[in-house]
Amino acid sequence: xxxxxxxxxxxxxxxxxxxxxxxxxxxxxxxxxxxxxxxxxxxxxxxxxxxxxxxxxxxxxxxxxxxxxxxxxxxxxxxxxxxxxxxxxxxxxxxxxxxxxxxxxxxxxxxxxxxxxxxxxxxxxxxxxxxxxxxxxxxxxxxxxxxxxxxxxxxxxxxxxxxxxxxxxxxxxxxxxxxxxxxxxxxxxxxxxxxxxxxxxxxxxxxxxxxxxxxxxxxxxxxxxxxxxxxxxxxxxxxxxxxxxxxxxxxxxxxxxxxxxxxxxxxxxxxxxxxxxxxxxxxxxxxxxxxxxxxxxxxxxxxxxxxxxxxxxxxxxxxxxxxxxxxxxxxxxxxxxxxxxxxxxxxxxxxxxxxxxxxxxxxxxxxxxxxxxxxxxxxxxxxxxxxxxxxxxxxxxxxxxxxxxxxxxxxxxxxxxxxxxxxxxxxxxxxxxxxxxxxxxxxxxxxxxxxxxxxxxxxxx
Length: 461
Prior knowledge:
The structure is a single chain. The chain has 461 residues and is α+β, with helices and mostly antiparallel strands. The chain folds into two domains: 348 residues, Up-down Bundle (Outer membrane efflux proteins (OEP)), CATH 1.20.1600; 63 residues, Outer membrane efflux proteins (OEP) (Single Sheet), CATH 2.20.200.10. It is built from ten helices and four strands; from the N terminus they run H-H-H-H-E-E-H-H-H-H-E-E-H-H. It is elongated.
């Protein structure tokens, strides 16, 4: 024990000089202090569960299937389990590992004989006294990385919920476009039939017949294209849901009409960037990765200082195997202090790597915040303009319908040309298509606003 005492005194003295953990502060947000259009009022999106935001029962059922079966979300959950296990490993390194061991050795003696020694007992091997925070910082880094994977899972869930909703709205738009195209195809088929009869009776020319035939075939081509797009959008939804769609979910309800253009989705306040953005899971993930980088710097700095390890055992020792458990108590305690002297610059290079990784993490955090700010600003711009654009488009549809009525009346009375009638039909078809697309985009923009404001990851009730 006389040899151990000085080393323990040195260790206790060094413990008083332990390095403080490196500061880990959230960088200031490199964005404007307010979103365009002001913060607004109401419940923040991050506090609105997706079960309350979406009113369509079929859509809520699809989202539930996706959260249970989507493979991207499943991978994110498995990443959490892996990170949790890594954190448990780092936590275990902060405590001594005790094992039971049995050993036997035979050593030669100077007179040509040998000495046999048997030992049994508990052993602690190379337990590190974390005086300078190396093990603690590694554990903190593992904890931050574990929490970052949890934030990544939430980000995947937010994206998944919005993707399922947007895919469902896209299928609703496909169905509406198919109805418009089928109606147009039926109208053009009847118009072509009448034009043929007029030609056979010598009233119209072959040019008019070919013009009506052109419009008829273009409607058929549009119908085939939309049917293909409907199948592609449903395949995309099946991939998101992670399983084949049940029969009752393969036929969506009609796309909301003018009076419910937003599909019953509630309006959301923009809030203040400093409050909204830091609640987004992807921003939270970037912040936690920055904390992990800070902790890695602390571990790299601690590598420059002495490392003290303790090795000890407690048990029995005997020269006879039969008397191993009946012999007296034996123990050993072997502390070791290792001070780096020459490592060819390895520790300094590791510190430089950790510091560079931290600067990268800061830049990634700032970029994540800037991207998030732009996404919110874009969605707010859409909310401000889509409603007005939709009202104008619906007014255009009404005007085109009246124009077609007048063109048909004028053509029958011989005061309008057949070309004017065909142009009115073509314009009305295009206007109705544009209206359907705008209604879908309007609703999808509100879903996107819900996502970019951090909504969609609240767990179910």
